[in-house]
Specification:
This protein is mostly helical. The protein folds into two domains: 34 residues, no CATH class; 72 residues, no CATH class. The protein has seven helices and two strands. Strands 1-2 form a two-stranded antiparallel sheet. It starts with a strand and ends with a helix. The chain binds zinc ion. The site of zinc ion has 8 residues, from loops.
């Protein structure tokens, strides 16, 4: 099995044993010290669709209120209906009051994946 590693700052693919990212120059050992929640929130912006979906599910379980601004940030220009679904579910799970704002953001084109959730 090939395990892929990503820089925890710029999310470029890097070698497993690398300490300084060749793309952004950030020391991966420094990033290890960043709080777990902070890393989780950063991962909302991960370019690979599986990651934000997984992260949104974790954030929903944790009901992490500090993730709300970044979840909305990612939602605004998101095109992937599965990422949208995971983010919308997380936002509503964290705080039901987010529902109206989600509706406003998606009002132009509500993806089929979230139609039921927003009814
Ligand atoms: Zn980097």
């Amino acid at each position: 099995m090939i395990v892929t590693y990503f820089c925890l700052n710029c999310w470029n693919e890097i070698d497993k044993d690398i300490t300084i990212c060749p793309y952004c120059g950030v020391d991966q050992r420094e990033l290890d010290k960043i709080e777990f929640n902070e890393k989780l929130i950063r991962a909302i912006y991960h370019p690979e669709p599986e990651t934000p979906i997984r992260v949104a599910n974790i954030l929903a379980k944790l009901k992490l209120k500090s993730a709300i601004p970044d979840l909305f940030n990612r939602l605004v220009n998101e095109k992937d209906p599965y990422i949208i679904k995971a983010i919308v579910e997380a936002l509503i799970e964290i705080d039901i009051d987010n529902k109206e704002r989600v509706k406003n953001i998606l009002s132009k084109q509500i993806p089929v994946t979230v139609k039921k959730i927003l009814e």
